[in-house]
Here is the input.
Amino acid sequence: MNQARTQTQVKHRTGFSIEGSRATCVGDWQAEALHDVEKQLSRVDWPAGAIQFDLGGITSLDTVGAWLLHRTMTDLDAGGRQLSLLNINEQHQMLLDLVEGRSDSTDTPPKPYVPGLLESIGRHTESQLLQYLEFLAFIGKLALVSVQLFLRPWRLRWGLVAKELQSAGVNALPIVGLLAFLIGIVIAYQGGIVLRDYGANIYVADIVGLSMVRELAPLITAIIVAGRTGSAYTAQIGTMMVTEEVDALRSIGVAPLEVLVVPKVIALIIALPLLTVFADVMGLFGGMIMAGSMLDLNASTFISRLTEAISMNSYLSGVGKAPVFAAIIAAVGCFQGFRVYGSAESVGRQTTISVVQSIFLVIIVDAAFSVAFSKLGI
Amino acid sequence: MTDQILQAHELVMKFGQKCVLNRISMWLERGEILAIVGGSGSGKSTLMRQLALLLTPTSGSIELFGQQVLKLSEFRTLPLRRRMGVMFQNGALFGDLTVLENISMPLREHTSLSQETIEQIAMLKLALAGLEPEAAALFPSQLSGGMRKRAAVARGIAMDPEILFLDEPSSGLDPISADAMDDLVLHLKNTLGLTIVLVTHDMDSLCRVADRIILLADARIAAEGTLQEVVASSHAAARQFFHGRRGRAVGVTYDQ
Here is the structure.
C-alpha cells in the first residue's frame, strides 16, 4: 500500500491507491498501462463499510479500464459494501454504463470442445478409415470414367493431356536429369572406393548400372514428380474447390473427373516412364564420368561392361514400375485436391498430405515390386 | 476549431502506368463518420488502405495524430497502428483461432493483462459488436457472412482504437443484416466516440450513417460534403452515382 501511495504522487502515472474509505484512481486507465493496476486491485485489502471511488484523477479511460473498475465494484457490491463514485465526468460515466450493460455476457466465455486422448484416437482412426474408403471410391469412379473414355477416345481432352505432358514431363527434365546425374556420381564414388581396394574397378559399371536402372532412377524420378507435379495437382484442384470452380463445372454438365483428373493421369503415365529413361541415361552418364576420373575407366570400357551387366529384364523392371508410380501420384494428388474444404488454408494442408501420401505409397509399392521380382527371379 | 486527426495531402497511387489515385487531399475530423464511395475500381479501397497505413502511396503525405507517418520507419508506426482498427472486407479472421482468440489477440500482444481479464474484455467487445456469447467458441469457417463481419469489427475495436476503418461493412449481407450493421456502426460511434472511415457503395448505409461523404471518380475526388451537398453536386460522376435508379434510396427521383 505504501508503494501505491507513492505512485499517486507522480502525475499522469497510471495508478490506484486507497486511504481510509477513499479509493483514488489516477492517470491513463488504458489497456496498455493497466497490468500493475489489475494486479493491485486483486490484492487490495478493502475496508469494511462504505467506499468512495474518486475518479477525478483519471486522464483517460478506455473499455479495459472501465471493465476493471466495474469488475472491482461488482465484487465489492456483492460483498455488501456501499459504493459511491466521486468526481466522475460524463464520458467516463458513459463508458461505465456501456460496460455494465454488456457485463452479463462476460461471465463464462464458452470454450471450443477439445476431445480427450481416447476420443482423439478414435476420431482419427475413423477419419483415416473413411479416407481410405473414399480413396477406393475415387479410384472406382476414375476407372469407370477411364473405361468410358477408352471406348470413346474422341471425347478425351487431348489438348489438356498435351499441356500436362509439357508441365509434368518436359519442364521436369532439367531437375530430374541433374539429380540423376549427381546420384550416378555418388554411387560410382561410393562403389569405387571399395572396388579399387579389390582391384575390381570394372565392376563399378555393374553397381551403377543395376542400382540406377532397377531402383534409383524410377524411385528418384517418382519422388521428384510427386513433389513437383502431385503437389501442383492438389493445389490446382484444391483452389478450384475453394473458388467453387469445380461446382461450376458440375453445374455446366461437365464431369470434373473427365476434365481435371483423366488428362492428368494419362499425361503422367506417359511422362513418368520417359522421365525414368532420361534419369537412367543421366545417372549412367554421371557414373561413367566418375569412373573415368576416379578409377581411370574409359568410356568405351564402361559402356561395354554396361551392356553385359544390365539385362533387358533389369531395364524393363525399372521402367515398368514407372507407370504404376505415375498412376499412384496422379490419383493421390487429384484425390487430395478434391478433399479441400472451406478455406485457402485447407489447400496447403491437403497439398502436404498429398506429397507425403504419394511418396509413402510409391515406396511401399516399390518394395512390393522388389519382393515380387525376387520371387519371380527377374 | 475542428479537431482533425488525419490529414492526407496530394496522395498519388500508381500501379505501373495506371494512376489509381491522382492528387487526393482530404481530412478526417474526430468523432465523425466519413464515407468513401465510388464505383468499382474507383480507388476507394486503395485510399482506405493508404489511410490505414497498409499501403504506401507513390507520392503525397499523410499526417496522423499530428505526425507525418510516411517519414516514419515501420517500427515507429506501430504505436500509431494500435490507435487504429481495421475491419477487412471478408473479415480476415485468423482461421485457426476461435472468434474469442481472434478478438483477444491484439490485447494479448499489446498488454500484460491476465488471461481472465483479456477473455472478459474480448467477450465484452463481442457483445458490443452484437454477437451472441455462443459465437465465441466458433471458428471463422463456422460463421455466416454477417457474423464474420461482426467478429471482425469486434477484433478491430479490441484495443479501443480512435479510428476504425470499415471496408464494405454491409456488402454481401442481406438487407436485415446490413441494417443491423449500420446500427452497429452508429452505436460504436456514439458509445465509444469512435471516428469511423467507411468504404461502401451501399446507398442505404450512406444516408443512414455517413456524416460526410467523399465520392471518388476517375482517380479524383468528384464531390465532397454532406449527403445533401454531394447529391446536389453538378459533377457528372456524382449525378451518375446518386441519380441512377439506385439513387432512390437517398430520396432522389430518377428524372430529377
About this structure: The CA atoms of residues 21 and 193 of chain A lie 90 Å apart. Chain A touches chain B at residues 30-32, 34-35, 38, 62-64, 67-68, 71, 91, 94-95, 98-99, 102-103, 105-106, 109-113, 342-343, 345 (CB under 8 Å).
